[in-house]
């Protein structure tokens, strides 16, 4: 029942793209493959992936140049990006990392190592997408089956309530507006009303009441919501 992080693979070599798709899907990622920068731009403009695996040389341009454009855009500034390229010279690695890459992997590569590097990048940049078990106020939130437990009390959370609680737990003591939560929990470019957030927060509060933990989910008047660290 884990929520699959989406990896955008921008790679023009079909055999490498297929190897990536196989390696990533078997460990729980959802893979979107684009062969060129034009298609990749169009996809990112519609909806943000959770991480990008980006080749340097593509049929219609250099991936590193697009990466710099992404870093200059407020919407995509913090999008995790891993360069995957045959360019193995130190100068190229420095250019890629200084251009904004979170990591740099050279071809030929180990699929297992790449998976580990993707998980490391997500753990730093988007911890809500990494499988974890959370404990707070005597409660345990389990990523495998979306259950919240405390002693003999067990509740299976709906998909949205689970995503919302996990996001807040991984970003505790930070206040988020309704608009931010819509983008970060529901998904970028999902067009639903802001009051939808309030409805799901109310549902989550009712669940937390059963566990004596509702006080940790705070309403910041005029701003949004925050999870107070235990």
TrEMBL record:
Modified residues (4-aspartylphosphate): 55
Regions recorded as binding DNA: 131-229
SUPFAM superfamilies from the UniProt entry: C-terminal effector domain of the bipartite response regulators, CheY-like
GO cellular component, one term: protein-DNA complex
Domain OmpR/PhoB-type intervals: 131-229
Name used for this protein in its record: Two-component system phosphate regulon response regulator PhoB
Keyword field: DNA-binding, Phosphoprotein, Two-component regulatory system
GO MF annotation, one: phosphorelay response regulator activity
Domain Response regulatory: 6-122
One Pfam family hit: Trans_reg_C
Keyword Phosphoprotein: yes
GO biological process terms held by the UniProt record: regulation of DNA-templated transcription
Record bears the keyword Phosphoprotein: yes
Organism: Hydromonas duriensis
PANTHER family linked: PHOSPHATE REGULON TRANSCRIPTIONAL REGULATORY PROTEIN PHOB, REGULATOR OF RPOS
PROSITE patterns: OMPR_PHOB, RESPONSE_REGULATORY
Domain of life: Bacteria
